[in-house]
Design a protein that fits this description.
Length: 136
């Protein structure tokens, strides 16, 4: 079925982005650098896999009844574990601010088609550094 195929694609996409996050985190030292690296991986995934990213993260993406929703939740919880040690505020609200930031960065950088990977990573890094300063 069409819905089954879309659910499978979402599940595969979340598996891939999780691998990208892990690879980025392993290459970084310290909690802030890990968050920057994983955020960069998120945005690069969005740029390189636009249609799949839209399927995974759109409001019409993984529904609560969808097996892929469990994968989306797992990915989100992994991101939250990177954000939480950086502040002592209401965890849920800070994570929602972070999630809104990386989602916005993914949208903006996809629209700015001329940006190199290095420029994207630098742009994301500066944005995340400013976010961390704001929550510290």
């Amino acid at each position: 079925s069409k819905e089954g195929l879309l659910a499978h694609l979402r599940k595969e996409g979340f598996g891939q982005i999780e691998k990208d996050y892990d690879k980025a985190a392993e290459a970084a030292d310290g909690p802030i650098q890990k968050l920057i690296a994983v955020s960069g991986a998120h945005v690069l995934f969005a740029i390189e896999n636009g249609a799949l990213y839209d399927l995974m993260f759109s409001l019409n993406g993984a529904s609560c009844d969808d097996e892929a929703f469990g994968h989306k939740r797992k990915v989100a919880m992994g991101l939250q574990r990177l954000v939480d040690p950086l502040h002592d505020k209401d965890s849920h609200h800070v994570f929602l601010q972070y999630y809104a930031l990386i989602t916005g960065l993914a949208i903006i950088t996809r629209e700015m088609k001329g940006m190199s990977k290095e420029d994207v990573v630098r742009f994301v890094g500066v944005s995340i550094e400013n976010f961390v300063k704001g929550i510290s």
